[in-house]
Amino acid sequence: MVTPLEKYDPQIYELIKQENVRQSGSLRLIPSENYVSKAVMLATGSCLTNKYSEGYPGKRYYEGQQVTDLIETVAIERAKKIFKAEHANVQPYSGSIANLAAYNALAEPGDTIMGLRLSSGGHITHGSKGSITSKIFNSENYPVDPESGMLDYDAIETFAVKVKPQIIISGYTAYPRMIDFKRFGEIAEKTGAYHISDIAHIAGLVASGLHPNPVPYADIVSTTTHKTLRGPRGGMLLCKKEHADRVDRAVFPGQQGGPHMHTITAVAVALAEADTIEFIEYAKQIVKNAKRLAEKLMEYGFKLVSDGTDTHLILIDLRNKGVSGKKVAKALDRARIVTNFNTLPDDPASPMNPNGLRLGTSAITTRGMKEEQMDQIALFIHTIVENIDNESVIEKVNREVLLLCSQFPVPDHFILPGEKVVHPLSNAEKRE
Ligand code: DSN
Predict the structure, then answer these.
(1) 173 lines ligand 1 (CB under 6 A)
(2) How far is it, in rounded angstroms, from Cα 405 to Cα 255?
């Protein structure tokens, strides 16, 4: 960790250290999380955080843009290259802001947007009840098929014909299967709607060619930059040239002021990293790991929504285990396995205590874990669920997880100098 921070703010320094220890000493299975590279971390913490750059390269409202114009142009060109897009906007502060800007670019307040229901795996900003997106726009939601847990494209088409949306949203936050973006494009064309695709979760898989790319079939593609894509926390929009001006105006001045240039700088770095053979290998392993973890969990009698996965994401339906997602998530957390409880399609339970548990393999794959470790992790999860109230079993799994973490440290090029984390327990375990 940077020494001046320790000197000038020991309290925050200490807390960052604690978080660093937590992140390296736990199995981070939240599918939207990852570890960024040292290069991305350094760019995020660079002097670009000091600069205001309202506007776009060559058309700014503040002077001193000699460098920022170059950086943002590099980020845009890299995004266009890896996603094969005609236009990119790298300024959205987050995925939520990117989604709202995409809607504002193509619809007027009161128009209908049509996304997947939150409980079926849609995102809050796809028009769910608590979101501003359902207050600005009229929101209609389609479900997944409750039996198979899969998208039913014929039913989606019938629903779109009925509700006549201005915008159809594809792309999800808790859907484990491949998405047929071409079919969504056809449904949008047939119903006279725009098609917006949110690939926040799968962007790294799309960039690697492991999941179909919606760019040819969507008017706008929205994404975050930090999930499977493994960049800094941020958002991005990709679109056809014909929508470029509308998209850019919707972001600035439509919703944002000055872009976060330090984030854009780090996005540029992450996009270069994603354009490598190593990243494709990494993305392949993410999917292999998720498939193996899914298989093993099913062998232990876990029921998975859609009976498996095509991506990095797994959604467990815990109803046959007689224990809620929240209780399992809390017990797993005590054993250093970090997940999130999640609603299921047609879950009768409340979203605060649902029956689902969501897992993802992006972060553990960054640590170099492979199929063999997925077998171990499935056994850990099985053991915890079978011993949900037995603290001594949970403590035993906790120590085994720590040992596994010490065998798969966060790689050196993902840690800043001086940040080597030592876990007292893992050393003790190693000596046994
Ligand atoms: N909260 C993110 C996720 O975990 O999927 C999406 O915004």
Answers:
(1) yes
(2) 42
pLDDT digits (tens, 9 = 90+) for 12-40: 988 988 899 999 999 999 999 999 999 99
Domains of the chain, earliest start first: 42-274 (3.40.640.10), 288-406 (3.90.1150.10)
Catalytic residue among 6, 54, 111, 186: 54
Convert the pLDDT of each residue in 359-395 to its tens digit. Answer: 999 999 999 999 999 999 999 999 999 999 999 999 9
Q: Name the residue with the closest Cα to ligand 1, atom 6.
A: 173
Measured between alpha carbons, how far is residue 375 from residues 169, 295, 381 in Å? 36, 9, 10
Q: Edge-to-edge strands of the sheet including 194-198?
A: 87-89, 235-239, 220-224, 194-198, 167-170, 112-116, 138-142
Closest ligand 1 atom to the C-alpha of 96?
7
Amino acid present at 242:
E
On the question of pLDDT at 103 being above 70, the answer is yes
Atom 4 of ligand 1: nearest residue by CA position: 32
The CA-to-CA distance between both ends of the chain, in Å, stands at 31
pTM of the model: 0.94
Residue type at position 190: K
Does residue 227 carry a catalytic annotation?
yes
Atom of ligand 1 nearest to the CA of 201: 5
